[in-house]
Amino acid sequence: MKLSIVLVTYNHEKYIRKCIESIIEQEFDFEWELVIAYDCSADNTLLVAEEYRDKIKNFSISIQEKNVGVAINFADALARTKGELLAFIDGDDYNIDIRKYIKQVAVFDNHSDVVFCFGNGYSYMQSSGKTVPYYEDALRIPQKFDLEYYYRHNVIINPTTIMCRTSSLPKQFPDFYFKYNNVDWMLTSFCALKGKIFFLDEALSCYRIHDKSITRTTKSIDYLLRGKWLNEQMNEYLKYEYDWFLGNNSWYNEQLTYEYVRNREYRMSLRSALKYFSGKNKISVSQLRYFAATIYSILFKR
In degrees, to the nearest 5, what angle opens at C-alpha 216 toward C-alphas 212 and 219? Predict the structure, then answer.
């Protein structure tokens, strides 16, 4: 089996049909399978997915009896896959290039040092109906780079275009993987330990943003606190080789300061501000001005 496509879904009844159709419409010149990771939706997502059981040769569904979250749901589906390569897509997103998988598979066939590939595409803002490029300035992203570059330049990965070598993933995920939903960032980190990351600057898929997206339903303070915790866990997992990045929580402490002020939790905001100013990075004058202006704006321009 050349490629396993893992479709992660939860409450995607309205969208999953378009997602699966965008996979069926693909051009393939290799054997592939579709594994649906179903996380016990409260709607008819499973019924819609089952419609395709007889339409796709290699088709299976990993079913959760209760809602377990993205990380566990994804890992359980991953255990079912047979492909040399893995591609990921969420049930509310869809492919827009019918040669997406062929193009990405070719990257791995032509670059033996590449273990992870992602591409360009579009973001669809459901509330406004607008479609915008996922990367406004894709030229700033090199075609091939390593984990150090990924961390140093904080490269944002287009999640609906991810493909990787199965062999680049850990045989067993560390415990912290199952406690946080930022699966894309963790997968990129795990894979890049084994080789290079490749950016395919072509519009491959569309990432849907709506009110029920994970990034829209996660509380800001909780999200930031768990992000700090994840950095610490990954730092230990990588034996502090990238401590200059993972051990530096300046960005999280800065953002937490703003959020605590918004919530009028001033004691916590002061604590976060002190951590921000005492962090490993030296705060420049321009950063200090921005920090002060942001605090002023939150307090007096509500």
Answer: 120
Q: Which of 149, 180, 170 is nearest to 237 (CA)?
A: 170
Q: Any idea which residue has 């942001």 for tokens?
A: 294
User: What's the confidence (pLDDT) of residue 302?
Assistant: 61
The structure tokens listed for 127 are 């509330």
Residue pair 90/16 in contact by the 8 Å Cβ criterion: no
Angle of helix 70-78 relative to helix 183-192, nearest 10 degrees, comes to: 50
The domain limits of the chain are 3-210, 216-300
What is the architecture, at CATH level 2, of domain 3-210? Alpha-Beta Complex (3.90)
* Span 23-73, pLDDT tens digits: 999 999 999 999 999 999 999 999 999 999 999 999 999 999 999 999 999
pTM: 0.89
Rounded distance, CA 177 to CA 107, Å? Answer: 28
- What is the structure's pLDDT at 93? 97
Question: Does residue 17 contact residue 94 with C-beta atoms inside 8 Å?
Answer: no
Chain mean pLDDT for the chain:
93
* Total count of residues recorded for the chain: 302
> Per-residue b/e over 88-107, b at no fewer than 16 CB within 10 Å?
bbbbbbbbebeebbebbbeb
